Amino acid sequence: MRRVSWLVLSLLIVTAGLVQAAEFVALGSAPGPLGPRDQIEVAVSRLAGGGVRLEYTLHGFEMTPVAIGGRTHQLVTLGREARSLEQGAPDLPRIARSVIIPDDAEMEARLVSIEYRDFPGVDVVPSKGNLTRDIDPATVPYTFGAAYAGGWYPAEAIGQSDPYIMRDLRGLVVEFQPFRYDAAARTLQACTRAVIDVVPVGPGRINVLTDARAPRGLSREFRQIYEGHFANFVLEGTRYPDPGEVGEMLVIAHDDFVSGLQPFVDWKNQMGIPTTLLAKSEVGSTAAQIAAYISAYYAAHDLAFVLLVGDYAYMPAPLSSGAPADPVYSLVAGSDSYPDLFVGRLSAENLGQVALQVQKFVEYEQTPQTGAGWYHMGTGIGSSEGAGIGDDGESDRQHIDNIRADLLNFTYTYVDQIYDPGANSTMVATAVNQGRSIINYCGHGSTTSWSTTGFSNSHVNALTNYNKLPFIISVACVNGAFQSGTCFAEAWLRASQSGAPTGAVAMYASTVNMSWAPPMAAQDESVDLLVLGRKRTFGALCYCGSSLMMDEYGSAGVSEFKNWHIFGDPSLRVRTDTPGTLVVEHDATIDGAATSFVVTVPGRAGALCGLSAGGEYLGSAFANAAGVADIAISGALPEGEVTLTVTDFNMSPYVAGIPVFTGPRPALSVSPDSLLVEMGIDEIHTETIQVANVGDEGSLLAYTIAVTGMGAGQPWLTVSPNRGSVPAGEAREIVATFDSRMVGLGTHRARIVVSAPDLPPVTVEVELVVGDASAVGGRDRPEVLALLPAQPNPSAGGTMLAFRLPQGGEASLGIYDMNGRLVRSLHNGALGAGLHTRTWDGRDAEGRPLPDGVYFYRLEADGLRLSDKVTIVR
Length: 874
Description:
- The chain is α+β, with helices and mostly antiparallel strands.
- It has 15 helices and 57 strands.
- The strands form 15 sheets. Strands 4, 5, 10, 12, 16 and 17 form a six-stranded antiparallel β-sheet that branches. Strands 25-24-26-29-32-33 form a six-stranded mixed β-sheet, sandwiched between helices. Strands 8, 9, 13, 14 and 15 form a five-stranded antiparallel β-sheet that branches.
- The longest helix has 16 residues, at 351-366.
């Protein structure tokens, strides 16, 4: 009879509550209470044949007493891991990790080993299931289902999802149950260590990755997702090249709104995101037609972002759970539910609403407020409900407060705590009007409000936070239900006062009643990724959070993702701190026939560098680890001027006009690059420097020379002539005169600066040492062996090599290949002190032209050896 009562009657207990704080339970040698991130380790290694091994080590977990019907049960939590949400079953944590798998193999997860520790005399809390946020969890009774009749639950320790495709990569979720419970024996078992192998067992059948698009590196924005999403990306990611260009954007607008979008399209092209604007009539009138067009465009382009323009009546959406589901447009690779694109919506009913939101998006990125402190201030809003049922067992306010702690450990200096009980709309309005860059909300909601605080559309419309616009992640019911009337998210994006932007710049909000725990996991992940300090777009933050949610909660997470909408520009670069200033180095002009343009942004790896002209995209590249971006130019450069734009996380954009040089282009070379002269008192001495034009044939280099850094007093260094011109392939000799009568004993420094229009100046560092005759010893030559840069370099086969000997003696100068073999001797014998030159014609000792490539030229003299590189390019 007892067994029948468990299975059929399913005991209902309503009176329940948390009775005290969580207790940490150590496993193994854990020294004491550990934070959520330290309670579990998952080590990943590669197996032969494309497999992967996951090794789990649990250091501890937490148990929180819950009173149910007068009896104490335990709520078991493990770090920040999710739970299965199976109503009436023991509420136990599960560990879900995505791994990259081969493109075309069927994979199987296998339990290699597992070790448990027993905890007898434990009653485990049952799950209330996956409740939606229009329900107060406290009103839902606990149900003890079939699993409480006895036997181990869950029966299996491991599982796996179907393979899925996330744009460039194929993956699957490995599901591990580190706890199991026997209710009849009142025994909880906790895993201390486990090993799971994921191995190929045959050809793939589901979501095989056969991308017909042209081969390319991983999408930059999605690469940031992969780094956090796939447990083995650190092992597999090096197999894929890092792309030099950002993914493209497609803007699809209702025909009435196309004219208002040109400033947005121009800015995106200017900053380096190639953007195409299409009218809805060119794409299709139904959601199915729009989806088909996006899929075809994705197959033919490196598409990363889609922006839909128009309210629901103007721009249709696919449906999921009976409500609009824009994220379904992102599912273009495979038959799974993981995003392959970032999709956002500019929801508008008229051209004025389009223009306002375009102004918000562009000004937020293009003209941030220099010196403004509101960028590093945020707001958190949470209800007092959900303890024990929320993700990680947290109530909404606990969840938001943990997010606050993460933000304060990042760039944020202040984050509001607007929590129930007592939260109200005035608190929100006051904070937002002062300026906040991020708002996280978790609680109940409606189509037009947040239930915690009662902040509604009317309050949004009264805001006065002029151009101090936050981005918002909202875990609440139907805040984004834009299919009927102006929803809460639309109010935030459309808000203005007397034409000036107010409200928000972006918002993540759902069109349905959200469930309780899964979206909390997504919000946690979005903030975790933000505080890592990576360069993030709003779309990447939102979709990466939802991808983790789908890993952890399976189908419950999928339904949330499909209805959770990005209101705003998915490519928006969010800001979390006072904007800094970029230091950017580049040529002052660009050749009209150039196929590339190099930009250096010291210390800013990942900075996006774009070339454009009149809003037309010409090329873009990300700065590499050395801060160098090599922009490949697409098509011909226009006459006149192009625009260089450099953007990076939390920085003000750098924008510069670059004149396009259409004639033969000169190039400036000066040798030597330094002078060291020793003189006695009351002496005059001369040295020579060479100014050469190593530019295009037919070019003419006009130059001027100035001496700087000598300080006050009579000049002890002069140059003559101090201006002139040099045809291509020729050099001019400049005489530098040193007069020690103008200075006292000691060391004196100056600079000879050679300048030419539209070219970077070249500086020769000068040092004069003045001593008495005995100290100088009559020597007027530097005591430094010097090997000067080859001119020109690269060379088509004729380059001049110059070197300076401090004293006479034996010297040798030779050309060596990359393997260190001598291929040509240019000098081997005695030479006097001073400057010497030799010309190498790019041939070996037998007079044969050497292959293109890099060679070394080496000088040996006075027991020393100097070398440098020269490149032959014919």
